[in-house]
Design brief:
Length: 355
């Protein structure tokens, strides 16, 4: 009798789950990307290193998203998404570090609350020829070796309310992350604005971001970071040309400490030479500012990639990169792993599958 009751309960639960899915249009999705790479000057001894890497062309992730039609063009929407370290099977941070939000979508646009990528992140992405590739792109932040820091954008906000909309050729977005500090609404608060405009084969982009730290006692000031981007893109058939720049400034609250400043520039060309083959070349350059003479590494990175589509969901790729710095300072290809030489070379071959 107990087994029968349990079986009936399981069937009822499955029925309820399928019923909810039918009403809410829920889907599970993901991207799995793994490769084998080799990098020079990967240790203090100047040795090279080979390894299995999770996310050569895109970060590996999985997620659940869905919507419910509420009528009159209005939908309830949600998304949960977490990163995966494919080389070990571990989670890349918190369970839903990448996305955890719910909201509404309609003729007015889309509004979500929770954690999400910022409007700046969303709008700059189409203007990066490498598509924020972990191997190799400095479009979100510069290499981890730069003494002044990564000088990059904030990719996501916690405690966020986010809006996106479009009208004609215009797209626009705004994000606000609450600081949630008893010391005042401005402490820890973050704000992002972004817009783009497309006409024919040409697209233009502009963004602005401001991130506050907390007030530093006994001072009445706080760290403030401001970042803006400008970009342009030409896309016509198999050819795509992209160029963009980021200006970064961090104004520290501590007296006597110099502002941190830097501008990152990048550009590239992608060409679909055959139905299954896409060739991409890109250059990234960081102009370090407001430092002592001969302390500006001003690193530059050159990248080339070949992608071969086995299907609509599965790609093979090979990418190679070379970076160098000025004034005998250190440089690295990666946004996360430091380099140990004045130059660094890397190559990665991998496979990516979307589901």
């Amino acid at each position: 009798m107990k087994k029968t009751a349990m079986s009936l309960a399981a069937v009822a639960a499955l029925g309820a789950a399928f019923g909810a899915q039918a009403q809410s249009n829920v889907s599970v999705y993901g991207l799995l990307d793994a490769g084998i790479d080799n990098t020079s000057n990967a240790s203090a001894g100047k040795g090279s290193m080979s390894r299995v890497t999770s996310g050569g062309m895109n970060t590996s992730r999985w997620g659940i998203r869905g919507n419910e039609d509420l009528g009159n063009g209005l939908k309830a929407v949600f998304q949960l998404e977490g990163g995966i370290l494919l080389d070990t099977g571990a989670a890349d941070g918190a369970l839903f570090k990448r996305q955890a939000n719910v909201g509404l979508e309609g003729g007015f646009g889309r509004v979500v609350v929770g954690r999400s990528f910022t409007s700046v992140y969303d709008f700059v992405l189409p203007f990066d020829p490498m598509g924020y590739a972990p191997s190799y792109s400095w479009a979100t932040s510069a290499n981890a070796t730069t003494a002044q820091g990564k000088l990059g954008m904030t990719t996501a906000f916690d405690n966020m309310i986010k809006y996106s909309g479009e009208a004609g050729g215009f797209k626009f977005g705004a994000s606000y992350g609450f600081g949630e500090q008893a010391s005042g609404a401005a402490d820890g608060a973050r704000f992002a604005l972004a817009s783009s405009y497309s006409f024919g084969p040409v697209s233009l982009m502009a963004t602005y971001e401001k991130a506050n730290g907390n007030t530093v006692a006994p001072l009445t000031e706080r760290d403030k970071t401001t970042v803006y981007h400008l970009g342009a893109m030409y896309s016509n058939g198999p050819l795509k040309v992209q160029a963009a720049m980021r200006d970064y400034k961090m104004d520290p609250a501590k007296l006597g400490v110099a502002d941190i400043k830097g501008s990152t520039y990048w550009g590239g060309v992608s060409y679909q030479s055959a139905p299954a083959v896409t060739l991409t070349g890109a250059v990234y350059y960081l102009n370090v500012k407001n430092v002592a003479s001969n302390a500006d590494a001003d690193p530059i990175m050159y990248v080339a990639r070949v992608k071969y589509a086995l299907s609509k969901r599965t790609d093979l790729y090979v990418a190679a990169a070379y970076a160098k710095a000025k004034h005998d300072l250190l440089v690295g290809l990666s946004r996360d792993d430091a380099g140990f030489g004045t130059t660094q070379r890397g190559v990665i071959a991998g496979i990516q599958h979307r589901f």
